[in-house]
Amino acid sequence: MASVTGVYARAFADVVFDNHLEVSRTLAEATSIAALVAGSKELREVWQAPPIPADQKRRLLDAIIAREGMSKPVRNFIAVLIDHHRISFLDGIVKQFEEELDRRLGIAEAKITSSRQLSDPERRSLEAQVGRLTGKKVRATYAQDPAILGGAIVKVGSTIYDGSVQGQLERIREQLSSSN
Predict the structure, then answer these.
(1) Which CATH number goes with the domain that contains 56?
(2) 26, 100, 120, 123: which has the fewest C-beta neighbours closer than 10 Å?
(3) Are residues 36 and 8 in the same domain?
(4) pLDDT digit string, tens, across residues 29-77
């Protein structure tokens, strides 16, 4: 599945960049139609049913696209998935599509955990520091965990930057135990 989702996600990202489409709008439309498909068993069954002619499936798609006010490139992309019997992969493709767009735009997803709610200036400062570390623009999500005592833990991809008091205490404990 990973190769199928990756191939289609990269191809759709190529369309977005080659045609200078508005990235955020295209992603929002793709996400919206993926949610619509995920939420409708009947729609999935129709689009996946081999006996139903492709032109009927596309007419249904066209009605949805018109009703939702979506763009022609998103319509064409969904039509390709329907025609190639790949609509069952739509959710995974859209997730990989978002990751591919972020990669091409130089955006890093950061998950930041702190012991308390951070103020807006603290968040901006932390995001700027992470941006300098990664060399990318940062899109951060925040969580709280009082167990870390203070500081923050930042996860970007598989890399973890542990600036928490709990982490510092753990490193001190390890140093003391290894020096004995």
Answers:
(1) 1.10.520.20
(2) 120
(3) yes
(4) 999 999 999 999 999 999 999 999 999 999 999 999 999 999 999 999 9
What is the pTM for the complete model shown? 0.76
Beta-carbon contacts of 59 under 8 Å, excluding residues fewer than 6 positions away, are: none
Residue written as tokens 């996946």?
48
Tokens of 130: 């992470």
Dihedral sign of CA atoms 15, 17, 23, 27 in order: positive
pLDDT in tens, 131-151: 998 899 999 999 999 888 888
Which amino acid does the sequence have at 180? N
Task: Give backbone dihedrals phi and psi of 19, rounded to 5 degrees, phi first.
Answer: -100, 5
| Token pair belonging to 106 | 């130089």
In the listed set 88, 103, 118, which residue is the last one of a domain according to the structure? 103
